[in-house]
Design a protein that fits this description.
single chain; alpha/beta
């Protein structure tokens, strides 16, 4: 199973900044140590043309040339720097690489499952960034895979975005609004950021303090409802945003999932996609735990379960958690 990274690009953030920049290197090191069967690969940067599949040219130019305004930088939460531009491009490139591996593979045979060790930048809109998100990796990768499917096989690619970050995927929902080829599902904290939500195809809002049982019950209903609505034209590719921030100790999460609850969440997503034989590109999305190593452990567990799913996929079997 292939996983893509871009943690060599570190943003020069001021002391005390809330973004956990160090988790990406720690996660890659944890993968090398504990999941040596995974093939870790550096991500290529997304090109302007690829970014333009989901973003307005004026926004791409402003980011690339460093002409974003102070207000735009505040909304993103990062000061502009060349490292920010390169990291943003490669975060998108990592999800492109994962989607291409899952869908097409290296020899034209899809590998079923692949991952980005970062990604899930779902607050970025077509015309702006927001909430630590510069470009929307899933939106760009989805559009590019649709173009590649048309070029290779002259057919439409239908996409399912399963967003289980604790924050609503507002940018993704806005980009794909009224687009019947992409189904967006978001399970998120009702009172959490973003405070002005966009309408996904299916939104499930959860109260503060929601724990394992209520969360998993809501997830089951949401997955069943989403699949039922797509049954006549099922997805050919899924993007799974496996945020670590629903954890009970997350600084920004406000939900109360345990480590086992998050692992069970992942199992249920992979089980459904495995039974339906839907390839999936996994992104780590958010995670702001009071203990950085807990965030890394949650992401590592997601990758371990993804690898089991990949093993079952390649054997043609139903995955087991």
């Amino acid at each position: 199973m292939r996983v893509f990274h871009a943690d060599q690009f570190v943003l020069p953030l001021p002391p005390g900044h809330s973004f956990p920049m160090g988790k990406y290197r720690l996660l890659r090191e944890a993968v090398h140590e504990h999941l040596p069967a995974l093939k870790v690969m550096p991500a290529e940067p997304a090109t302007d043309g690829e970014l333009a599949l989901a973003h307005e040219p004026a926004w791409i130019t402003a980011v690339a040339e460093g002409t974003t305004s102070a207000a735009q930088q505040r909304e993103i939460g990062f000061p502009w720097s060349p490292a920010m531009v390169e990291r943003a491009r490669r975060s998108v490139g990592a999800t492109i690489g994962a989607a291409r591996a899952a869908l097409f593979g290296s020899q034209g045979v899809g590998e079923g499952v692949a991952a980005n060790l970062a990604g899930g930048t779902h607050h970025a809109y077509a015309h702006k960034g927001s909430g630590y998100c510069v470009f929307n990796d899933v939106a760009v990768a989805a559009r590019l895979m649709q173009a590649e499917m048309h070029r290779r096989h002259r057919r439409l690619l239908r996409v399912w975005v399963i967003d289980l970050d604790v924050h609503q995927g507002n940018g993704t929902a806005a980009i794909f609004r009224d687009d019947p080829t992409v189904f967006t599902l978001s399970l998120h904290g009702q009172k959490n950021f973003p405070f002005r939500k966009e309408a996904s195809d299916l939104d499930v809002e959860l109260p503060d303090g929601c724990g394992d049982d209520d969360y998993l019950r809501a997830l089951d209903h949401a997955l069943d409802a989403a699949w039922a609505r797509q049954a006549a034209a099922p997805p050919d590719l899924a993007f799974y945003l496996a945020g670590a921030d629903p954890h009970e100790n997350d600084r920004l999460g406000r939900l109360k999932l345990t480590l086992e609850g998050l692992a069970e969440r992942d199992r249920r997503v992979f089980d459904l996609l495995g039974r339906r034989r839907v390839p999936v590109a996994v992104s780590m999305a958010g995670g702001y735990n009071r203990d950085l190593h807990t965030t890394v452990a949650i992401h590592r567990r997601t990758l371990e379960l993804a690898h089991r799913h990949w093993q079952a996929w390649t054997a043609g079997e139903r995955p087991h958690g």
